[in-house]
């Protein structure tokens, strides 16, 4: 069963125009890898495509902006190791390998063999004129424990479609304002 979440152009809270939406179906290669769930979102970031691409291409920049990512270790120009918090307090890990890289335009990746969760995807950066850059992120993955695992992940707010939407909004905030807004209370000042 293919599950698709597309927020762009489907009445979601996305701010990108309908013309920026992508078709959201797993490719034949993704299906062959068992990646049957797919999420896609497009939003606008008020920075140039070159700026957004440069931020994204240094994968170490992404971990602080992604809620459930425990760490990203860059191994070389094409390979990075991801550790992500999972429902139930565990973690999942994989090596991500860049499969396509067009400076200023797109980055595509695929998980290496042995990944806890097989996944692949692409992030595209397109000029949005005075509005900055349309960023379209599409991720295909093999949900652990199928539909039940997906439901548990959704209930614990660790479902990839939910996380993808939150993470892109956090990256947007970081790139546009230099900080990420949070509802967490600040640390109290030490009492004398």
Short summary of the structure?
This protein is of the alpha+beta class and 192 residues long. The protein has helices at 28-32, 49-57, 146-155, 160-177, and strands spanning 3-6, 37-45, 69-74, 79-85, 91-102, 106-111, 119-127, 133-141. The model is unreliable at 1-13 (pLDDT under 50).
Give an overview in words.
It is globular and about 45 Å long. Mean pLDDT is 79; it is low at 1-13. Strand 4 and strand 5 form a beta hairpin. An eight-stranded mixed sheet has the order 1-2-8-7-6-5-4-3, covered by helices on one side. The protein is an alpha+beta fold and 192 residues long. It has helices spanning 28-32, 49-57, 146-155, 160-177; strands at 3-6, 37-45, 69-74, 79-85, 91-102, 106-111, 119-127, 133-141.
DSSP, total strands: 8
Oligomeric description of these chains? single chain
Helix content: 10-25%
Strand content bin: 25-35%
Number of helices: 4
Distance between the termini: 60 Å
Question: How does the SSE layout of this entry go?
Answer:
Layout: E1 3-6, H1 28-32, E2 37-45, H2 49-57, E3 69-74, E4 79-85, E5 91-102, E6 106-111, E7 119-127, E8 133-141, H3 146-155, H4 160-177
Parallel strand pairs: 1-2
Antiparallel strand pairs: 2-8, 3-4, 4-5, 5-6, 6-7, 7-8
């Amino acid at each position: 069963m293919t599950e698709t979440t597309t927020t762009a152009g489907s009445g979601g809270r996305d701010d990108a125009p309908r013309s920026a939406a992508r078709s959201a179906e797993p490719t034949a290669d993704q299906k062959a890898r068992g990646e049957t769930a797919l999420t896609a979102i497009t939003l606008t970031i008020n920075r140039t495509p070159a700026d957004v691409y440069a931020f994204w291409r240094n994968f170490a920049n992404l971990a602080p902006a992604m809620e459930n990512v425990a760490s990203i270790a860059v191994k070389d120009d094409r390979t990075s190791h991801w550790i992500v918090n999972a429902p139930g307090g565990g973690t999942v890990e994989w090596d991500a390998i860049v499969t396509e890289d067009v400076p200023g335009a797109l980055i595509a990746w695929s998980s290496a063999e042995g990944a806890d969760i097989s996944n692949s995807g692409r992030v595209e950066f397109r000029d949005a004129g005075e509005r900055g850059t349309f960023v379209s992120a599409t991720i295909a993955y093999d949900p652990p424990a199928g539909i039940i695992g997906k439901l548990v992940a959704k209930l614990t707010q660790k479902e990839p479609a939910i996380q993808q939407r939150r993470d892109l909004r956090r990256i947007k905030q970081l790139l546009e304002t230099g900080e990420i807004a949070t509802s967490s209370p600040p640390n109290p000042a030490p009492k004398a």
